[in-house]
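Batch manifest, entry 17 of 40.
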Amino acid sequence: METGLKIADFESLLVDFKEPYEKVKQALTKLKTCETFNEVFPEFIELNDAQWEQFQSDWIRITAKLTREEDIEFVRQSFMPLTYNLYEYYVDLSDPKLTVFGIAYAHQKTSGWFKYLLFENLEELIQSDLEQVEFATLKQHCQVNFSEGFAKYF
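Output type: structure tokens
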């Protein structure tokens, strides 16, 4: 995965990441056709192309304003936010597996960023029979991953 990559704007992002960007949009469109997915993950909403572009552009602007070294090292402009205006789940477009994850910052005895896994491989997920996928179980595992990640800072 890229580190320290500086992306000026949405068009610059597409120079390096057009193919994975389009794959992610298509994958989410397919996931939104699955009733069980929608029940378990209502925070994933369907967006049109202009909304996706605006959302990603907003993310690029937000990350360009980061000043703390710790934030700059962890939070990537190549992250594609997947939950509109919630910034809850992401895909790193520089990751060939298109892993879906959440990020959080712990403010405890020690502090720092951590990732927690939701879907290990987005492409494999959408190629499966979505009606057979146990999305509720995947969300529970994600919550456990979050708790375990958070616990490291106590």
